[in-house]
Amino acid sequence: MKSIKYISIFVLFFCANILNAQPDAQDIIKAVQDKYSSISDGKATFTQTYKPSSGSSTTASGTIYIKKKNKYRIETKGQIVVTDGVTSWTYNTSKDQVVIDNYKDNANSFSPNKYLFDYPVNFYSDLEGEETISGNVCYVLKLTPRRKGSVKSAKIWIGKDDDIIRKIRIVSKGSTNTYTLKSVTLDAGISSSKFTFSPPSGADIIDLR
After folding, report:
1. Residues 190, 59: contact at Cβ < 8 Å?
2. Which single residue of 103, 153, 168, 195 could bond 71 by disulfide (Cβ 3.0 to 4.6 Å)?
């Protein structure tokens, strides 16, 4: 009986240590912060799925480029979105139309840098479990805004072995956007010229500045 008791205590102690060894959401956040604070830029191919609250979903794929700070470029088949952190350009290739506006960085805006460079500290974070994304085992974090805004909730999938964000899902009022990142390259040496945009000759320009 005594040996069984000791075995039971050992099993409980062993299991407790396994549970304690599992990272929590804050451990994962810290690892992501450390990863991305040490780099200056990155690029990746991606797939985006947009699903409105009513109606069918649409899917697009393309390439995303990011650079500290607040610079990004998103290229898809029908659209190019560019910002240098001051001005934003949205070019609709089928309409040959460019919308120019001031870059807005507020609680209701979305930019890749908020999720890839500046982890959203204005969200409550919970570890939901693990899931494999494109062959990479990922932690799944659920994010809940601390204050009301257009973003109702979000989920982020983070590589368990490399601390790289592999997938982002954002639930906003009226729609859900899901981005799955592939072929991620960090510190790619991207020129700052990638984050400015010159409208094509003859394009319809709408300047909202």
Report:
1. no
2. 195
Give the 3-state DSSP-derived string for the chain, with helices as H, strands as E and coil as C. CHHHHHHHHHHHHHHHHHHHHCCCHHHHHHHHHHHHHCCCEEEEEEEEEEEECCCCCEEEEEEEEEECCCEEEEEECCEEEEECCCEEEEEECCCCEEEEEECCCCCCCCCHHHHHCCCCCCEEEEEEEEEEECCEEEEEEEEEECCCCCEEEEEEEEECCCCCEEEEEEEECCEEEEEEEEEEEECCCCCHHHHCCCCCCCCEEEECC
For domain 24-207, the question of CATH label 2.50.20.10 is answered with yes
* Cα 174 from Cα 160, distance rounded (Å): 32
Per-residue pLDDT tens over the stretch 79-114 = 999 999 999 999 999 999 999 999 987 655 556 556
The residues with which 3 forms a beta bridge, in sequence order, are none
